[in-house]
Amino acid sequence: DAGVIQSPRHEVTEMGQEVTLRCKPISGHDYLFWYRQTMMRGLELLIYFNNNVPIDDSGMPEDRFSAKMPNASFSTLKIQPSEPRDSAVYFCASSSFFEKLFFGSGTQLSVL
Amino acid sequence: GESVGLHLPTLSVQEGDNSIINCAYSNSASDYFIWYKQESGKGPQFIIDIRSNMDKRQGQRVTVLLNKTVKHLSLQIAATQPGDSAVYFCAETNGGSQGNLIFGKGTKLSVKP
């Protein structure tokens, strides 16, 4: 099993640009999570899906952030427009029955 | 100005010694706890979990202890190796609600050869 696959690995963009992060969960997992990690705030849950349906998006910082899961094998997290304070590492994770999350390697986002 | 990063607690141990990493959790209703290990440049990796109906659980070289009375969780690593150097996070479910996995701030473990 290849694990959770995230792309791109690194993203550098300018303020105001649209950013799209991608995630392929582990096959057969029912849950998909998007986390953000910063030194100041640690790991924060942004949103999670169950069977492709968004269940809780209360962690999404503001309307500039949106996430979709069109099918069981793909999810995106979009930031439009991006701001410097969005700079962080964004992790996608998946799991069966919610427990034991398996994380991807993350996307290091830098907004200049 | 430059933002100040969160200061992580650091534990430094000698190779071969045992390590104990502590975590205080916040919600007395939490019923499931997990320890994760995060190496530099990688995502968190599951180590071991424990449910609230248990006090202790052992894995390979790792043991998790749960004290619900004082809301305390610990991770013990036996015969610590250089490859154990990482940041360790405890996580709790908030009242059992799915998705509300709350992560602690982490402890950095450094293993001296």
Any descriptors?
heterodimer, A: 112 residues, mainly beta, seven-stranded mixed beta sheet, four-stranded antiparallel beta sheet, 0% helix, B: 113 residues, six-stranded mixed beta sheet, 50% strand, globular
Provide a concise account of the structure shown.
Chain A is mostly beta strands and 112 residues long. Chain A has no helices and 11 strands. In chain A, the strands form 2 sheets. In chain A, strands 2, 4, 5, 6, 9, 10 and 11 form a 7-stranded mixed β-sheet that branches. A 4-stranded antiparallel β-sheet of chain A has the order 1-3-8-7, with no helix packed on it.
Q: What does this protein look like?
A:
The complex is a heterodimer of chains A (112) and B (113). Chain A has strands spanning 5-7, 10-13, 19-24, 31-38, 42-50, 53-56, 65-71, 74-79, 88-96, 99-103, 107-111. By secondary structure, chain A is mostly beta strands. In chain A, the strands form 2 sheets. In chain A, strands 2, 4, 5, 6, 9, 10 and 11 form a 7-stranded mixed sheet that branches. Chain A is globular, with a radius of gyration of 13 Å. The N and C termini of chain A lie far apart (36 Å). Helices cover 0% and strands 50% of the residues of chain B. In chain B, strands 1, 3, 4, 8, 9 and 10 form a 6-stranded mixed sheet that branches. Chain B has a 4-stranded antiparallel sheet with strand order 2-7-6-5, with no helix packed on it. Residues 1-5 of chain B have low confidence and may be disordered. Chain B is mainly beta and 113 residues long. The interface between A and B is medium-sized, with 24 and 23 residues.
